[in-house]
Write a structure and sequence with these properties.
- The structure is a single chain.
- The chain is built from 14 helices and 14 strands.
- The chain is of the alpha/beta class.
- The chain has a six-stranded mixed beta sheet with strand order 7-2-1-10-9-8, covered by helices on one side. Strands 6-5-12-13-14-11 form a six-stranded mixed beta sheet. Strands 3-4 form a two-stranded antiparallel sheet.
- Helix 3 packs antiparallel against helix 4 and helix 9 packs parallel to helix 14.
- The longest helix is centred in the first third of the chain and has 15 residues.
């Protein structure tokens, strides 16, 4: 059996594990990252899945939330200044917009007043309500940003703490309300309501799910704080910068290594064993990015915990993603200002139909009403395709369970 020892062994080479490894390596620890695929990056990867020369983000794209991370916002590890991470300049483009079936459109810009003006084309009342809503929530964005990159708090204690102040009680209202409740309280025009609903349902939550209102608050606040986040060359560039950082500090990232089990001694994870017979020992800790419902497949003694987390849903539904290599960028039937946006939603001007779509997907039915979203990253980063050509990331909501059966049963159903 081949053996090696590091201070830390990281199981999985996704962006979260690579981030942990980069911080540990920069702090002077010996780090070894083990990834089972022949590439690293997890959700931040780019591949030529259609035609050679067209680079597609096969998972995360427009990673604007990453800009809230101190890793990027403060450049804590030098990913931007030293290791090649670059974001494309999106200029004055809208961050998120909805194009309706009648050719009208509404957009969310980082700048609040431009968003207000877009809504105001159709409803002065909604425009004023939107300004008031966003102004009220922007003060909480630093809290959201901190919470994204900190260990989760105990739910009951957190709610009790919130209940002790007017600001906290303001937030609690969002935790108990659905997206539909919130939208109906504040807005009246069908365009505004559909636009706001689709913004929230990007998080794969039904419109009637209690607490969904917080998702809308969260997304709107971040969109009004950070511009679209297209990594030059594709989202893979984020992972590449992390690996450069790890290797610069003496760490190792190994791909094509299939971890079979975690060795536990006296209640402490001490090493991992791989399918090819190698043992990687850790002096200080094993850091593993394992899905909770498969924990017991790798770590002995965790069977009870694994069974406890299995029923926890990850989202109300999922999405069906299609990658296309195009001769030119798509041109929605909408005014010029809505031709190039960070995210573009195509939807009917029918709020109830959009609510029904999210409920259908959440209850295991393929939605009869059509709505889709797309990202055309080459509008802002032409390096992802040959000159004048375009990539398209097209997706629409679909059930995670169709007729009560898992995804692998789709063909039979």
């Amino acid at each position: 059996m081949s053996e090696s020892t590091s201070d830390f062994v990281i199981v999985g080479g996704g962006q979260n594990q690579l981030s942990a490894a980069a911080y540990l390596a920069a702090a002077g620890h010996g780090v070894t990252v083990l990834e089972r695929h022949d590439y690293y990056g997890g959700g931040c990867v780019s591949h030529q899945v259609t035609v050679p020369g067209f680079w597609h983000d096969t998972h995360a794209t427009n990673v604007f939330m990453a800009q809230a991370n101190p890793l990027v916002r403060l450049d804590e590890l030098g990913l931007v200044s030293r290791f090649g991470l670059r974001f494309a300049d999106t200029g004055a483009a809208a961050a998120h917009g909805t194009v309706f079936d009648d050719g009208s459109a509404v957009a969310l810009y980082t700048e609040l007043e431009r968003s207000v003006d877009s809504i105001g084309q159709y409803s002065a009342r909604d425009a004023a309500a939107y300004r008031k809503f966003i102004t009220a929530i922007l003060k909480y964005v630093p809290l959201f940003s901190f919470a994204l990159f900190a260990p989760p708090a105990n739910g009951d204690r957190f709610k009790a703490l919130l209940n002790e102040s007017p600001e906290g009680r303001f937030l609690l209202e969002f935790f108990s309300s659905s997206t539909v409740d919130l939208i109906n309280r504040h807005f009246t025009d069908e365009r505004t309501k559909v636009h706001m609903l689709r913004l929230a349902t990007e998080m794969m939550m039904r419109g009637d799910t209690p607490g969904g209102a917080f998702g809308l608050m969260f997304m709107a606040g971040l969109y009004h704080t950070f511009k679209p986040g297209f990594v030059v060359g594709g989202s893979q560039g984020f992972s590449d910068a992390l690996v450069r950082c790890i290797e610069h500090h003496g760490g190792k990232v190994l791909t094509g290594v299939h971890v079979e089990r975690v060795e536990v001694q006296n209640g402490r994870a001490t090493a991992v064993h791989t399918a090819d017979g190698r043992r990687f020992a850790a002096r200080q800790a094993i850091v593993a990015g394992l899905v909770p419902w498969r924990l017991s497949d790798f770590v002995p003694g965790t069977e009870a915990l694994t069974e406890k987390v299995k029923p926890v849903p990850t989202s109300d539904y999922t999405c069906f993603l299609t990658h296309l290599a195009l001769k030119e960028a798509p041109k929605p039937i909408a005014p010029p200002d809505y031709q190039a946006m960070g995210f573009t939603v195509l939807a009917p001007r029918d709020f109830e139909a959009m609510v029904r779509m999210s409920i259908d997907a959440g209850e295991g039915r393929v939605p009869a009403d059509f709505s889709a979203s797309y990202v055309c990253a080459t509008l802002f980063d032409q390096s992802r395709a040959p000159a004048g050509r375009a990539t398209l990331y097209l997706y629409r909501p679909v059930p995670t369970l169709l007729a009560g059966q898992p995804l692998e049963a789709w063909d039979a159903i």
